[in-house]
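Incident log, support desk, overnight shift.

02:14 A customer reports that sequence design results differ from what the structure should imply. Their input is reproduced verbatim below. On-call engineer (initials T.W.) acknowledged and began investigating.
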């Protein structure tokens, strides 16, 4: 059990006008690690009723902020290297306060003032008069009510000596009584893999959620279900199909120093490479997002077999995958995938990411698709090393296949000489010594995908 300490904070009432000015100037910022998502979690009704809460002074809970400069000084005084890096980044960006809890209240106050939504119909009384308001934007309210809104004060508690790790603990404790789901809880992790998954979900949200697809509902997007999908891909990437994707296993994956945390950059690069294939808009037709997971699995399996997707076959591969998906969905065959479970159709299996479902779906795809049509053995290296080029030049008596003299003083100048592949890299040719010759740049580029004949002829 870790030893915890008492944090230092102070409470102050701050007018909405001041919070608005700080937010618009960038002095108050949101770390998405401490938010359900980059958008508001509030429903349309919640948003419209927020001005009423302000006018009637029914907003008792405090907004929680972190003072960047104070926490940076605390980190420096205590030689907390990672905390120094974390808070220094925000300080250098001109941020003075980070939001731990209250993002919706601040953001929706700003949105209301900026005229982005209407208040609900409301009636209320203050010490002086009775007010009756129809649905109105901020600019449509009487000036007196605009002033009341801007001058209304919100309780703000600001922490001054909290570490980055304690921020995650604070976020979790603040939300203990709120219905945070597992992806939202994992998002507060300080690990590299948490940051990578959050960034990938934000980057590819327009692909996974748009008017042409039906993989995620708006409330699912707002509850980090895209993050959860990508987390499932990451879990497979690191652990394979045999291990179950569960809230518990994903929580372990998100831990600092887990194998996934250490390999977060590798997963990021691989997933972005996969998304280049996934850019084919025909995939929008897939009826279940778990088919996208199946596609990712096929891609990774071929990579692990040191195979690469043939560029000119990419469209055919997607066509075959779509057609196979439709074929499997329409097939009512029941498969006994385990001793304990009842027989299942592909349609039933596609409904969940249980390990047995994932394994058997993968088996069916590979039974119905010939991967050798679309993937070929990958060359170990497309570019010859300096050592390989040097040995090849000496081996060939300082002559190119075209019979030209090789100037050793310029051997490693890429504008003069290239390491030419006897069997082109595009056809699986490696960059090892047996497949490399030295060519002048113009001769190598003119060669294209033709095969070099070491007897000075082009096949």
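02:41 Re-run completed on a clean worker. Output:
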């Amino acid at each position: 059990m870790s030893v915890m300490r008492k944090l230092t904070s102070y409470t102050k009432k701050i007018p909405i006008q001041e919070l608005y000015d700080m937010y618009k100037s960038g002095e108050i910022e949101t770390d998405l690690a401490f938010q359900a998502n980059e958008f508001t979690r509030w429903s349309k009704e919640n948003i419209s009723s927020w001005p009423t809460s302000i006018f009637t002074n029914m907003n008792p809970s405090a907004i929680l902020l972190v003072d960047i400069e104070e926490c940076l000084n605390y980190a420096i005084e205590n030689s907390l290297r990672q905390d120094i890096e974390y808070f220094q980044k925000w300080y250098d960006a001109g941020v003075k306060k980070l939001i731990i809890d209250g993002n919706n209240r601040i953001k929706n106050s700003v949105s209301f003032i900026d005229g982005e939504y209407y208040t609900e119909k409301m009636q209320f009384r203050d010490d002086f008069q009775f007010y009756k308001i129809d649905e109105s934007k901020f600019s449509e309210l009487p000036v007196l009510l605009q002033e009341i809104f801007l001058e209304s004060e919100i309780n703000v508690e600001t922490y001054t000596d909290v570490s980055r790790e304690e921020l995650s603990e604070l976020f979790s404790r603040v939300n203990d009584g709120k219905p945070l789901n597992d992806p939202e809880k994992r998002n507060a992790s300080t690990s590299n893999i948490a940051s990578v998954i959050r960034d990938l979900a934000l980057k590819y949200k327009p692909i996974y959620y748009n008017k042409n697809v039906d993989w995620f509902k708006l409330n699912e997007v707002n509850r980090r279900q895209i993050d959860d999908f990508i987390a499932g891909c990451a879990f497979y990437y690191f652990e394979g199909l045999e291990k179950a994707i569960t809230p518990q296993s994903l929580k372990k994956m998100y831990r600092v120093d887990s194998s996934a945390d250490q390999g977060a950059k590798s997963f990021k690069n691989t997933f972005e490479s996969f998304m280049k294939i996934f850019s084919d808009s025909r995939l929008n037709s897939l009826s279940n997002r778990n088919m996208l997971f199946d596609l990712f699995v096929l891609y990774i399996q071929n990579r692990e077999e040191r195979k690469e997707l043939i560029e000119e076959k990419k469209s055919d591969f997607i066509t075959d995958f779509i057609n196979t998906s439709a074929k499997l969905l329409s097939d009512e065959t029941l498969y006994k995938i385990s001793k304990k479970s009842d027989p299942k159709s592909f349609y039933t299996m596609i409904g969940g990411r249980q390990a047995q479902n994932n394994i058997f779906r993968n088996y069916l795809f590979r039974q119905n698709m010939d991967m050798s049509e679309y993937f070929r053995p990958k060359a170990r290296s497309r570019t010859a090393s300096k050592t390989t080029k040097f040995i090849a030049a000496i081996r060939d008596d300082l002559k190119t296949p075209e019979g030209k003299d090789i100037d050793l003083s310029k051997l490693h100048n890429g504008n003069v000489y290239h390491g030419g592949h006897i069997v082109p890299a595009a056809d699986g040719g490696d960059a090892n010594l047996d497949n490399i010759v030295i060519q002048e740049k113009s001769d190598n580029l003119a060669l294209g995908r033709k095969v070099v004949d070491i007897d000075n002829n082009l096949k």
